[in-house]
Amino acid sequence: MILDKVNMPNDLKQLSLDEMNVLADEMRELIIKKVNTTGGHMGPNLGILEATVALHYVFNSPVDKFVFDVSHQCYPHKILTGRKEGFTDPEKYHVYTGYTAPEESEHDLFKIGHTSTSVSLAAGVAKARDLKGEKGNVIALIGDGSLSGGEALEGLDNAAALGSNIIIIVNDNEMSIAENHGGLYDNLKLLRETNGDAELNFFKALGFDYSYVEEGNNIGELIKAFEAVKDSIKPVVVHIHTEKGHGLEAAVANKEKFHWILPGTLDVKEDSAVSAVESYDSFTKDFILNKVKTDCRAIVVNAGTPGVFGFDKEFRKTVGKQYTDVGIAEEHAVAYSSALAKCGAKPIFTVMSSFIQRTYDQMSQDMALNNSPMTMLVYWGGISGADATHLCSFDMSLIGNIPNIVYLAPANKEEYLAMLEYSYNQNAHPVAIRVPMGELVSTGVADNTDYSMLNKFKLEEKGEKIAILGLGNFFKLAKEVKSELKSRLGIDATLINPRFITGIDEELLENLKQDHSVVVTLEDGILDGGFGEKVSRFYGNSDMKVLNFGAKKEFSDRVPLDELYRRYHLTKELISDDVEKCLKVACCVHN
Amino acid sequence: MILDKVNMPNDLKQLSLDEMNVLADEMRELIIKKVNTTGGHMGPNLGILEATVALHYVFNSPVDKFVFDVSHQCYPHKILTGRKEGFTDPEKYHVYTGYTAPEESEHDLFKIGHTSTSVSLAAGVAKARDLKGEKGNVIALIGDGSLSGGEALEGLDNAAALGSNIIIIVNDNEMSIAENHGGLYDNLKLLRETNGDAELNFFKALGFDYSYVEEGNNIGELIKAFEAVKDSIKPVVVHIHTEKGHGLEAAVANKEKFHWILPGTLDVKEDSAVSAVESYDSFTKDFILNKVKTDCRAIVVNAGTPGVFGFDKEFRKTVGKQYTDVGIAEEHAVAYSSALAKCGAKPIFTVMSSFIQRTYDQMSQDMALNNSPMTMLVYWGGISGADATHLCSFDMSLIGNIPNIVYLAPANKEEYLAMLEYSYNQNAHPVAIRVPMGELVSTGVADNTDYSMLNKFKLEEKGEKIAILGLGNFFKLAKEVKSELKSRLGIDATLINPRFITGIDEELLENLKQDHSVVVTLEDGILDGGFGEKVSRFYGNSDMKVLNFGAKKEFSDRVPLDELYRRYHLTKELISDDVEKCLKVACCVHN
Predict the structure, then answer these.
(1) DSSP codes joined into one string, B189-247
(2) A540 vs B536: CB contact, 8 Å cut-off?
(3) Which residue, A210, A379, A461, B70, could crosslink A495 as a Cys pair with Cβ 3.0–4.6 Å?
(4) CA-to-CA distance for A367 and A376, rounded, in angstroms?
(5) What is the pLDDT of residues B179-219, one digit of tens each?
(6) pTM of the entire structure?
(7) First and final CA of chain A: distance in angstroms?
(8) CA nearest B488: which of B505, B466, B457, B521?
(9) What is the Cα–Cα distance from B72 to B61, expressed in whole angstroms?
């Protein structure tokens, strides 16, 4: 194998073009096998393979510096920078993260997993070089899908005015995760159709020098283009036309499906029939389809990640004009939805917890300050074993401290459905709902709560001495803790389902003082700035003891969930241990 | 006066062009007099006067809908939509806000005060119209300075693909608050120089129809241009070249100074000599100038608001290449600074508290996750009587709950200087410093604290029974409360200067349990998600009573500061009252 001779970028420079082509094929095979075994980003890595070989052939990393946007496409780079055993040796498949990681290699500058950041970061890298009087090229790689994000656009505007070397490779595979949306993409199309010669050129309009490579999976062509811009003394864009999933028929045929795959996807010969299993996702889709059918004002908005919500092609087609995918553009998504709501439409913005933080100012100013009655559905919110770049444990602390927003945490199917209806029909507030995670819970009894009565917690079971507030996903855990305390201490604890994240039920909490000495709060997110602290503050001047359970403020990185639960004392046993200790302090319970 | 005949937009339609020109002059005089009396945005309102007259002449508000970006330029619009007495009658100068406000008029759609939002909002307005099968034009007005913000760029990309009527008026006065920065502005210049005919056209590249009006202060020309696009069935940009401060010589001569002025600015004949008075601003500037002079790695970054920090033209010139104003582009500013720090430069990003929320994701992912040792200086943080759009009380809750960031609250000059040095010289963490507000406090004794020992609070005065934690700006209030408690109760309270916002000193707090029964926290920001709640959580399982004082989570709107302090119990008397009440509960103090 050629790859046997290649450990670091320098080894590449000894190869002929033919050898590099063989090398690319070898790498492709490794990536396909590895990703199909572990799951991961398939299409983006296959599409950028030849370009990565050409970049490392032409430039001299780490003196020349690469910044990969979102780093969904860094596997070939990892193979060529000392980490190939993470792809050749199945035992080591999990050694390296799926994203660039400075702790792994000096060839990775940043830990990256959110989109649209590479150009801004590269501008900083280039400016640091200039300040220190150093030399070298700075190369940002960015996909066409990521270009629509505000940070990328701000970065392009500024990078163009940098006045020194910065090379931006626009990896145009004609796709975001799903299809692209926005006027910019018509310009990319025009540029592709004219082999880069069209007069109307978004990049040139910003002030960049510009070149185009039609055969973006042709190493020889790419090398020519990169050599032409190497050591450029001014900002330049190289627009390369690549094929997402290149070299893997299934991935080319179904680019969206193969953007990121689960283990074994290639081994399933046909798409299984659409699952009829009920889930929070299916309820949401049913709700939307029903509204869209009966109400012309209904509209569903998302920012470039329809797959997260199960919005497949058929769903998108059915919803038609009442579906807007704004592309990677969460800021626009919130402002746009806010205006829709203000003008009498009924927008439902769906977003993954990790990405809601891309639009704080718009939530605060465009939405909350204007009290726009839109609905935000926050998916995947909760503690997880995810990569540090995709944690979903910050949304409650983020949304929960903005005035005017009603943020709800349903604990089961019936509550979720009732909250959806409430939010859709009301006109008083922006409402966010944390779509439950994990196993489907159903009470079998319709929820008739009037959620317009804000901050009313549900007293599920009245007990004594100890009250357990189990928020959303953790209501189930609260029930387990109640059982555990019963069996350990013989105490019938009170069980409360708060349902509101953004406010506390002062009357209910006040009443607890009569016959309770310990209040326990459980929340599926970080404690800092979260729900429990508000309860602690409320009881600050009283004798009530309060124990807050939730995640620590940290960027945990691929830590297994059960380990995190132990770390944060989020098991019925550990919580009960802490409650027992606390009861000893709460003297009035001693008897 | 012509204005006597004009109360609402319809009245305008009866006027001849000559009458409209006279009307514009009358309005100009009123605006100059009013703004010079009350303070406010002068240049932007004078620049857009003629365009506003023309817009209301051509379009039919509120059937046709206007969205004003940042709404720094809405005074002429207010005059023409039923609110002229706010300009003709000095008694009513304060009746209307300086921003668009739906509660004032149906001609204002949104409450707006942050930049770069109008295109996204207008896209939502237009889509709502289309969903409901309604008619009418939707017009977004946006200044050239606001174009560089991510939300505006995301909005433009999406608006271009809307497929129906949306008219974007680009008000190009060749200025942001200060000068513009970024490649986009070279394109605007080229378009101006070619009377809109240049082939390279940023807006056309995005897919907009485009027209240009060189005489953007000529009502007749503007009417022609607006009539040409009225009822357009597709997205269109009208690029108008206006003069900031038009018709007021002083404002034209010094556009930056007259962007927003203090009362009476026109009456001061000459710029007073540069003030030599010491202030936190002057310390910061001295610090930066010193670093820049001695260290080529030093660089100061801001996002389009140099005036907030006192970075005047002379300062900018002196700092030279070590100064980057990224324009309205906070996301880029943080990512860029983060990369600078990661690559060995020493970036200092200065930002107003109200705008730090425009870049949460970049603080979290680009900066905190990468532990980039950059310095962020947060200005104006604190409770204020500001307009609801410019509150500065959310930054601690926002920054304070992101992992890895060290957020510091100095209580005096010496601490501030020591923290600046610490932050500049360290390489371990992103450090944010909340630049103190209000009167300068100096101890006269250099602060030699080693701030790399994180989360160590300073025990200023050891007392008993009650401990008062006065954070940053509120350390002064803590001292007052201590005196008040001494005189009321004869108790020598313990006085603590926490200095760290992002973590608590567990050892010190633990020790307080020995001889204290009440802990009081004071913070100059919202309580929700803030500093005090972390202290409450810490003491949750103990007998310690905790009282958190700070602002309520709300969008207060031009409420006088002393009224807010009363509302939030932020006076020594009200705090002492609450402490007294609490002492009665804390039985162990009874004696």
Answers:
(1) HHHHHTTT--S--HHHHHT-EEEEES-TT-HHHHHHHHHHHTT-SSEEEEEEE--TTTT
(2) yes
(3) A461
(4) 11
(5) 888 999 999 999 999 999 999 999 999 999 999 999 999 99
(6) 0.97
(7) 76
(8) B466
(9) 19
Report which of B526, B425, B549, B409 is spatially closest to residue B478, judged by C-alpha positions.
B549
Give the ipTM.
0.97
Which residues of chain B from 77 to 96 reach within 8 Å of chain A, CB to CB? none
User: B299 at the A interface (CB within 8 A)?
Assistant: yes
Distance between CA atoms of B479 and B461, rounded to whole angstroms?
10
Verify cis geometry, omega within 30 degrees of 0, for the bond prior to A90. no
Q: Which residues numbered 236-295 in B keep a CB inside 8 Å of some CB on A? A: none
Task: Inspect the interface and report whether the beta carbons of B153 and A154 lie closer than 8 Å.
Answer: yes
* B533 touching A (Cβ < 8 Å): yes
Residues in chain A with CB shorter than 8 Å from the CB of B554 are: 403
Sorted by sequence, the CB contacts under 8 Å of residue B470 that are 6+ apart come out as: B411, B476, B477, B478, B479, B481, B495, B496, B497, B498, B522
Distances (CA, A) of A316 to A287, A288, A311, A323, B567: 14, 11, 6, 7, 49
Strand partners, B461: B495
CB contact under 8 A, A345 and B131: yes
Cβ contacts of B547 on chain A, cutoff 8 Å: 540-541
Check whether A588 has a pLDDT greater than 60: no
Q: What is the pLDDT of residue B154?
A: 98
pLDDT in tens, B326-343: 999 999 999 999 999 999
Secondary structure (H, E, C), B368-383: HCCCCCCEEEEECCEC
A498 in contact with B at a CB cutoff of 8 Å?
A: no
* Per-residue confidence band for B273, with pLDDT thresholds at 50, 70 and 90: low
Tokens standing for A497?
A: 């389902």
d(CA A98, CA B448) in angstroms, rounded, equals 44
8 Å CB contact of A555 and B370: no
B393-433: pLDDT as tens digits: 999 999 999 999 999 999 999 999 999 999 999 999 999 99
Q: Is B62 on the interface with A (CB under 8 A)?
A: no
- The confidence score (pLDDT) of residue B175 equals 86
pLDDT digits (tens, 9 = 90+) for A426-437: 999 999 999 999
Please, what are the domains in chain A?
2-260 (3.40.50.970), 280-434 (3.40.50.970), 458-589 (3.40.50.920)
Which residue carries 């007392």 as its tokens?
B463
Q: Taking CB atoms and an 8 Å cutoff, what residues of chain A touch B184?
A: 157, 160, 205-206
Out of A161, A533, A554, whose CB is closest to B537? A533
Tens of pLDDT, residues A85-115 = 999 999 999 999 999 999 999 999 999 999 9
Q: Which one, of A161, A326, A246, lies nearest residue B119 by Cα?
A: A326
Distance from CA of B200 to the nearest CA of A (A): 5
Q: Best residue in B361, B526, B527 to probe A by mutation, most A CBs within 10 Å?
A: B361
Quote the CA–CA distance of A80 and B302 in Å, as a whole number.
38
Q: Is B109 on the interface with A (CB under 8 A)?
A: yes
Query: Which residues from B are below 8 Å from A100, CB to CB?
Result: none
B452 touches B540 (CB < 8 A): no
Residue B196 sits at the chain A interface (C-beta within 8 Å):
no
Question: What backbone phi and psi angles, to 5 degrees, belong to A522?
Answer: -125, 125
